[in-house]
């Protein structure tokens, strides 16, 4: 939808620019060309008429001089020369006029050609845009047709479902619905002996579970001790025995070292 609005805005802008170009640039130049064409055509026709008259006059003088051996009068010769000069001047003026207006007309033609190209592009864009709109319209109509069919089918199915709605089975004789059910629940007798037996059975199951748990813990502890996984430290008495043993070894080492040193010492000579 947004793209469509933007396209319409672009088309409006192009249309306004084309109209403005046609009314300002091309319009004034075209009016000048049209006026110049009319004047140029009139002058050309007058020059053509004078040229034809001059040709006829010259042909007559030629026949008089060559065939009849008659010389024309000086006034005739003078008039013919004047007409020839006038025609020559007019033709030269027309030539200069054409050379002057030709570049101006070319610019106008270029502007008109550009205007024609822009108008052709504008019209082509309009045709493409219209084709897109027609396709969008066709798609919208198709989608709406599908939606309308769905609505129609849904309405028919809802009417059919309402027609064959769920009907609960008839109640038994003397049954009044929820109130009857509540009365039956309140009036139900409770078996006390069965309830006590269930409680006692539950207590026995719990005692068995506790006994099995304690047996598992005791067996795991015995296996840990029998496997000598605990380190036997001996307490304070063991520490004292280790200390005494180390002291005895130290004393033995000291005495053994002194005895070996005295036996290895040299004896001094006796005096005379």
Automatic annotation (TrEMBL):
Keywords: Coiled coil. Signal peptide: none annotated. Residues 258-272 have a biased composition (Low complexity). The keyword Phosphoprotein does not apply. It comes from Fibroporia radiculosa. The keyword Transcription regulation does not apply. Residues 3-248 form the Actin interacting protein 3 C-terminal domain. This is Actin interacting protein 3 C-terminal domain-containing protein. GO terms for biological process: establishment of cell polarity. InterPro entries: AIP3-like_C (IPR022782), AIP3_C (IPR005613), SRCIN1 (IPR051825). GO terms for molecular function: cytoskeletal regulatory protein binding. One of its GO terms (cellular component) is cell tip. Residues 1-22, 251-272 are annotated as: Disordered. Residues 37-126 form a coiled coil. SMART domains: AIP3.
